[in-house]
Amino acid sequence: MHILVVPDSFKGALPAPEAARAIENGLKRSSLSFSSQLTPLADGGEGTVDCLVRSAGGRFVTARVQDPLGREITARYGLIEDSPANNISKPSKPNQSTKPTKPGNPNQSSKPPQLNKSTKPVQTNKSSKPRSSSTSQQTQTTAVLEMAAASGLPLLKESEQNPALTTTYGTGQLIKDALDRGADKILLGIGGSATNDAGLGMASALGARFLSASGEELKGIGRNLARVDKIDLTDLDPRIPETEIEVACDVDNPFYGPEGAAHVYAAQKGADSEMIDELDAGLRHLAEIIAAELECDLQQLLGAGAAGGLGGGLHAYLGASLRSGTAMILDFLQLPVKISRADLVITGEGKCDHQSSRGKVIGALAKHCAAADTPLLVLCGSCDRDLTPLYNQGVTSVFSILNRPATLEASISETEELLTLTACNIGQLINHLNKSIQ
């Protein structure tokens, strides 16, 4: 039996890699004979860099960049060389790769299913020039970035939070550093921003210029959104058109308006009601300039308002595609292929409820497992009474790891032990069922 172990983090208790090892250790304590493959997951938010880099065998690097207020800091991101080859980590036992079909289904083809490739937005002002011939078509260097490492709210004291003055310039510096290190694909998470500059700062760090009506070059901050009269991409880093950029974006807020970037998110970044109105008016004005000069209607782009309009800016200036963070990660780690080769998939997260079926890791895994006819078990700290939506999506069964009444603090501190014990019990059950069937 080959088991794929793919947990999300148990937030506040256990990171995804440690959760995966705890589940595997529990299975090993049982009498079950199995091979396993560990692929810790994330949903595109906090922990995405660690998840992807560790799962794909990459490495961490650092860069000196500006924080949201222009102060120099060190930010970390990940590089994954030869991505297509490294995406599928090796199983803990060698027999997995020789398993052509799943037991009980002899007609199943051994050929793994094709992954759905993301569609890159049309770039009306971009060159179609291919990547240089020195880069093999068989390999790829992927940079995994989180904008929060350079432009995130946690980098500021509460008294410093001001989305009219903060900038995404440091995020642009991270992208440039990745390009300097040879990245030809960039995966960027944009959660946790301290900014509302619609990516003006980010693009400026890559060579773009935003000019006022008098020709003054504007600093990339939220206060200057309404002053932009012309966008000059002449000196934009020439490597950008040759680079595939995918943005993990799990919100669908429009660029401006009552549900837009400023009205929904600016208050938590330090804006008062007057500033929110000014930022929203600036976003509306910038959207008109972008539509006229770049032929891009950001108000129609779902997620354009993410991260203070950075989602829209990445699309308009760099031609980036916005995707569900969970879907992006599952595709990059080639989970559909791994699931099709597994006899059982085990995942987990801190709480399993109605939201787990809506774009989160468990819901996405359930759809892939249902398509591959592969059982999916979910281990969690707590779960709703009614899990029918998850069962309908493809989850086989849900197990709470709690085995006695306990305080939240005690449960959190014992998460690793409880995961291991529950996985051991599951292994024992599966082993007994296998013997009964035989």
Write up what this structure looks like:
The protein has 438 residues and is α/β, with parallel strands linked by helices. The protein has two domains: 2-41 and 338-437, Glycerate kinase, domain 1 (Rossmann fold), CATH 3.40.50; 43-93 and 113-332, Alpha-Beta Complex (Glycerate kinase, domain 2), CATH 3.90.1510. The chain is built from 15 helices and 13 strands. The chain has helices at 16-29, 48-55, 83-86, 148-151, 169-180, 200-205, 261-265, 273-294, 306-318, 325-332, 335-340, 361-372, 388-393, 408-413, 415-437; strands at 2-5, 35-38, 59-66, 72-80, 142-146, 185-189, 209-211, 230-232, 244-248, 321-323, 344-352, 376-383, 397-400. Strand 1, helix 1 and strand 2 (35-38) form a beta-alpha-beta unit. The longest helix has 23 residues, at 415-437. The two termini are 14 Å apart.
